[in-house]
Amino acid sequence: MERMLERCCGLDVHQASVVACLLVDEGRRKPRREVRTFGTMTKELEELAAWLQAEGCTHVVMESTGVYWMPVYAVLEGKFELVVGNAQHIKQVPGRKTDVSDSQWLAHLLRCGLIRPSYIPPKPLRELRDLLRYRRKLVGARSTERNRLQKLLETANIKLASVMSDVFGVSGKAMLQAILENQLTNEEIAALARGTLRQKQIALRDALDGRFEEHHRFLLQTQLERMDELDAHITTMEQRVDEKLTPYGEQHTRLMQIPGVSRIVAATIIAELGIDMSIFRSAEECAAWVGVCPGNHQSAGTRKRVKSRQGNEHLTTALVEAAQAATRTKGTYLRDKFYRLKARIGYGKAVMAIAHKILIAVYHMLKTGGDYRELGETYLDERDQQRLTQRLVHRLKRLGYQVTLQPRDEVASSEDAPGPPQEVPANSAACAAPTPSPPSAVRPPEHRPAQPRRPAPKPRAPHDHARRQVTTHHDPRIPPVGHVLRRTHQGVEHHVHIRVGGFEYQGQFYASLSRVAKVITGTAWNGFRFFGLDTPSPVL
After folding, report:
1. Best exposed site among 198, 205, 340, 370 by fewest CB in 10 Å?
2. Are 526 and 517 in contact (CB under 8 A)?
3. What is the pTM of this model?
């Protein structure tokens, strides 16, 4: 093969040793080869660097295996042109693998320019990477600890998760602390609920009625302390991340304009991708490096379906998280595109496609320094307006109708000046802004007999909410207005007053007895069956 470099070195890096193969072109048919083995201590790595400098080596290559290459890279950084290659791209011929042959093979590929260098960000971004990746591990550990605590509560038959949407919110933490202290009754613990959770007092009391013993309290105390410790570590890590993000504040703020991209996601994009997009030849190459684009498998002229390529898992996870948040942001192009794709290819693939679109937007924003431009949820309809018009006209013709399209402006002018409407072909430029046609524009074909018109529906009376609710009291099972319904549930007597248009319970007004029964019990009930309606008493 044709040589590209005169002096280069290949390193086969291990935990305790580094095998170096130096190739020097001296004008002969074969280059001079020298192989040496060094340790991985800092002193020995500095000896490796001194030897290579004395030999005039300019380029050094190593495989990106594990984390063992990182200290070697840190010692040699700034002294040589370093190339970190993907181990999957530079595999040796099977059956001839030794440390020496690996280093020689690496040096030979580097000399001929056959190794594609991996992207290694500058040192400040590598430090930011370490912080964000460790924060991700801490968040995962906190989630694991929360799952353990949920399991502990279930073993003691404490069913808070069945009543509360977040056991670790403000109300949930207060209740867990009260359970741990074991000084309050279940009714007093349920009274610690805040917000809308206060409407589930009875259900909370039932959920707290378990068998929580001293053994469970010991484990609960340990898990709560562990969660508090993780929360403190996560807060400290985020403060450190904010300090490291100071030089990239402009890019960080700009990326947060994208729907679904939060503060942490934007920081992860900067740390994993960098801010210099010149390292990628195109946005497609950037997406392939990250791993959010489909793989390529074509054989015998047939393109087969394959999974997404393997790439940067940390950045892929952040982009998928942003995509899921973007699908819940109303009025955006990404949300509209997601639901179009979901109906055709499913939820998972649609989310990955939205993550790909977010990455493409990130690439262009970082490359040009521009802001995010929201296209809006009607962008796809407006872009395919003529195609959509022709498709709808074709569907109407298949149903047997003859369609005449007329622009909105001409409809308005025809109303001012009466006259026959001007017919516009469906494939003309005047169909760029179609509107619902008047009844005379869509008529049945002549060869079909006209269908008899249905009788016009009877006009409805104006909506009267109070009157509609009052009529519900015409049910003979409900006592007259002014009476009270009494029901004892789990040792507590409840009073429901019958008012005009509904029922009053604990100062709240309800439209039906079933809703009152659900508030009392926390589950769905038939209101008439729950209250019995046998012995109503007058209002006291």
Report:
1. 370
2. yes
3. 0.69
